[in-house]
Amino acid sequence: MMFGPLNYTDNLRDTASGSFRNDERNGLNGDDLSEMGPIDYILVEWPGRQPNGEAVPHLVDLVDRGLIRILDLTFITKGEDGSVAGLELADLGGEVAELAIFEGAASGLLSDDDVNEAAGALEPGTSAALLVYENTWAAPFASAVRRSGGQLVASGRIPVQAVLAALDAAEANS
What radius of gyration, in Å, describes the C-alpha atoms of the chain? Predict the structure, then answer.
């Protein structure tokens, strides 16, 4: 995904109120960037408008334990005709109260082009959450690598379904 310039608001969870707050920044300086952990994104798809809030406590737990920092969270829908639209939390229905904690989690890193590119991966008639987050748990390691002159040259994820299929295949061949 292509992201816009790094001139964004930092999204931090206000532990007193339990909600996220946006702290305006004029951009990141080199010191901020050198201390950041790896940044990842995930796109999670549901049929129709299915997000029910079940995953929300787990996401909040990751933030509360300092394992991740949410930079952007946006909800999108892809109509049966292929049309793409953003979803407001109130549009999701169901367990809106559990999702309300993420209201305003938008750093500005995601552009409209990014959202449209993500929507291209969706099946018609689905909704999705697009989450951009910093792996704060890895920041000390990532910073040490950068200070020592190292750089990340490859990264990837292996879907659970692929791991299960590979284990099944290995078992069948033994």
Answer: 18
Report if residue 115 sits inside a domain: yes
- The values of phi and psi at residue 132, to 5°, are -110, 130
Task: State the residue range of the domain holding 139.
Answer: 10-172
The one-letter code for the residue type at 158 is I
Q: Quote the tokens at residue 108.
A: 């500005």
pLDDT tens for residues 74-99? 889 899 999 998 877 666 666 556 66
Which are the contacts of 57, defined by CB distance < 8 A and separation ≥ 6?
98
pTM for the predicted model, two decimal places: 0.74
pLDDT at residue 11 tops 50? no
SS3 142: helix
Q: Residue 29 falls within a domain, yes or no?
A: yes
Give the side-chain half-sphere CA count within 13 A for 67. 7
Please enumerate in sequence order all residues whose Cβ is within 8 A of that of 142, keeping only pairs 6 or more positions apart, or say none: 36, 37, 38, 135, 152
3 domain-assigned: no
- Exposed/middle/buried for 20, CB within 10 Å: 0-12, 13-18, 19+? buried
Domain assignment present for residue 108? The answer is yes
Number of domains in the chain: 1
